[in-house]
Design goal:
The chain has 195 residues and is of the alpha+beta class. It contains two helices and 16 strands. Strands 1, 4, 7, 8, 9, 10, 11, 14, 15 and 16 form a ten-stranded antiparallel beta sheet that branches.
Length: 195
């Protein structure tokens, strides 16, 4: 029995992603509204600002498709990558991280988007309506951010309003194969020790 547990723990340790107990997830971009504000949109952010959120602009395009992958640990996400489409263009997300436990008024994360820049997300709230939030029970989150500091009305850039749903990623074939081979090894050792 001891050998079986050792073999099983080795298989589990080999299958875990680097970086400890983070779980691979997909972040499916969806549409809807939060506090009367619609999402998911990519837009220029050049005309009005409300409590750190740039809510107006021109060149507004709905995000029509997108899926991101990430490693989730509690209410934090790291190694965010993937793509989304808006206005007939597909944009690559080449990196990013989000920590929804960040202190109020501080940066909770960013997304690096090819061709647009780095979108920064702040832990800000406009009353009870607009907020960068993640509900771990339902797996739903909202992101409202921009490619420039929220304190400078003079700056212009891009804004993004994303709704997403986090779900466990489908294991890669190699991980499934590793679990299968490990299970066979454990069974074989178990049978040998009984004989």
């Amino acid at each position: 029995m001891r050998r079986m547990l050792q073999g099983l723990s080795l298989v589990v340790a080999l299958a875990l992603p680097a970086g400890a107990w983070a779980v691979p997830v997909t972040l499916a971009i969806n549409t809807g509204s939060q506090g009367g504000m619609s999402f998911s949109f990519l837009h220029s952010a050049d005309s009005c600002e409300l409590n750190g959120f740039w809510r107006c602009g021109s060149n507004i395009n709905a995000v029509t498709a997108g899926a991101l992958t990430a490693d989730q640990s509690g209410i934090a996400f790291s190694n965010i990558q993937g793509s989304f489409s808006a206005g007939g263009t597909t944009y690559a997300v080449t990196g990013g991280s989000l920590d929804f436990g960040a202190a109020a008024g501080t940066v909770l994360g960013h997304l690096d988007v090819t061709g647009l820049g780095t979108f920064t997300f702040y832990n800000l709230r406009h009353g009870t309506q607009i907020a960068n939030t993640f509900d771990a029970a339902s797996g739903t989150g909202f992101l409202w951010g921009q490619t420039f500091a929220p304190s400078s009305v003079a700056q212009k850039g891009w804004g993004i309003d994303l709704g997403f749903t986090a779900a466990p990623a489908i294991p890669e074939p190699n991980a499934a194969l590793l679990f299968g081979v490990g299970g066979l090894i454990v069974l074989r050792r178990s049978r040998r020790s009984k004989a």
